[in-house]
Write a structure and sequence with these properties.
CATH superfamily: Chorismate synthase AroC
Radius of gyration: 22 Å
Number of strands: 17
Bound molecules: ligand EPS
CATH class: Alpha Beta
């Protein structure tokens, strides 16, 4: 079983992730993790923080001579901004006076529910952990496990399908390499160059008016075998796990698989993906992929197609009405330095989150303690499916 936890505050010294259960002998490319961390930092619409940070991973356990050891892997990313927050984020009680408490919860943020639930008179103790800065650790983990998936031919890509009401035209035929190049070349990670200037103009306008923007991310995974996940129990269904993992990303509000909500309006005859058999290659095929690559909580072997909706960020430079926690008087929500739009970053984050759930399902199905065993079990299964 693979599992991970993250720890760390947005303006604390560092973010930490511990990943357990990766097979031994997986080659680890640290530069590739750093490339994904850099991808997460990019995107038009970010605020001043990204000019301060230069995220780089430090691995302090579980890897030796470039290979995983089978033991827990600890990934650390330093917060450069901590230098500016040392007193305000101090461990020492005597430094408390240096940090004015945050007392005006922002509508849409974890602020109010968190302060009430944890009985905190300073909202900073909530917002520091609720912050999307935490996703740095999740991207490092996702990037690490992509290195287990790649030799099996499994690839995952996240890109932006819409920001605000500006929707990219749908991709006629998904080609992984082309989509990866196009999204990387785009300032807002879209595959449609025509929509990009409209998105940039709207981000600029929101920046001027103190507003924020959400959007839609798409994640596609290719090269999947049939049968990851299982129909037999609710918590083994891969679609359910993917939805949970994606909804746990900060500001995510909805997940669709395949045709998603649109499927509800179609008749069964128009929706379901008819089955064919490719005799020369001895494999079952589908005439369409409206299911988005899962049926009965299992992969079908077709590409996995997910969409995730992100609400606009809740830190507004022109704040909404709120109530001061101390006085209970009407007040405006707190203004904190923040981003106007982080949907391009969310695409990289969703990619990492999906990669983790797929790696988890792979290790579960192929029960591997080593890369060697994983490869053997994986190839054996593919041959079994071919010979069916
Ligand atoms: C965030 C607010 C901003 C973002 C931050 C998430 O940070 P700050 O308050 O320091 O300006 O830049 O995102 C990151 C730091 C990051 O690495 O993505 C928030 O409130 O969630």
């Amino acid at each position: 079983m693979i599992r991970f936890l993250t720890a760390g505050e947005s303006h604390g010294p560092q973010l930490t992730a511990i990943v357990e259960g990766l097979p031994a002998g997986v080659p680890v490319d640290v530069a590739a993790i750093n490339r994904d961390l850099a991808r997460r930092q990019k995107g038009y619409g970010r605020g001043g923080r990204m000019a301060i940070e230069k995220d780089e991973v430090r691995i302090v356990s579980g890897v030796r001579f470039g290979l995983t050891m089978g033991s827990p892997i600890t990934l650390i990313v330093e917060n450069r901004d901590y230098r500016n927050w040392e007193k305000r984020m101090s461990l020492n009680p005597e430094d408390r006076e240096q940090a004015a408490p945050v007392t005006r919860p922002r509508p849409g943020h974890a602020d109010l529910a968190g302060a009430l639930k944890y009985h905190l008179d300073d909202i900073r103790n909530v917002l520091e952990r609720a912050s999307a800065r935490e996703t740095t650790a999740r991207v490092a983990v996702g990037s690490l496990v992509k290195q287990l998936l790649a030799p099996l031919g499994i690839r995952v890509l996240g890109y932006v399908a819409a920001i605000g009401a500006n929707e990219a035209r749908p991709v006629p035929e998904f080609d992984y390499e082309r989509a990866a190049q196009q999204s990387e070349a785009s300032a807002v990670r879209v595959l449609d160059p025509e929509v990009e200037p409209r998105i940039i103009a709207e981000i600029d306008e929101c920046k001027k008016t103190g507003d924020t923007l959400g959007g839609i991310v798409e994640v596609v995974a290719t090269g999947l075998p049939v049968g990851l996940g299982s129909h037999v129990q609710w918590d083994r269904k891969l679609d359910g796990r993917l939805a949970q993992a994606l909804l746990s990303v900060q500001a995510a509000k909805a997940v669709e698989i395949g045709r998603g909500f649109a499927a509800a309006r179609l008749r069964g005859s128009a929706l379901h993906d008819e089955i064919a058999y490719d005799r020369p290659n001895r494999r079952f095929l589908r005439h369409s992929n409206n299911s988005g690559g899962t049926e009965g909580g299992m992969t079908t072997g077709e590409p996995l197609m997910l969409r995730v909706a992100f609400k606009p960020l809740s830190t507004l430079m022109r704040p909404l009405r709120s109530v001061d926690l101390r006085t209970k008087e009407e007040a405006l929500g707190t203004i904190e330095r923040s981003d106007v739009c982080a949907v391009p970053a969310a695409a990289v984050i969703c990619e990492a989150v999906v990669a983790f759930e797929l790696a988890r399902a792979v290790v579960e199905k192929f029960g591997a303690d080593s890369q060697h065993e994983l490869k053997r079990n994986y190839e054996g299964y593919l041959a079994q499916v071919r010979d069916f």
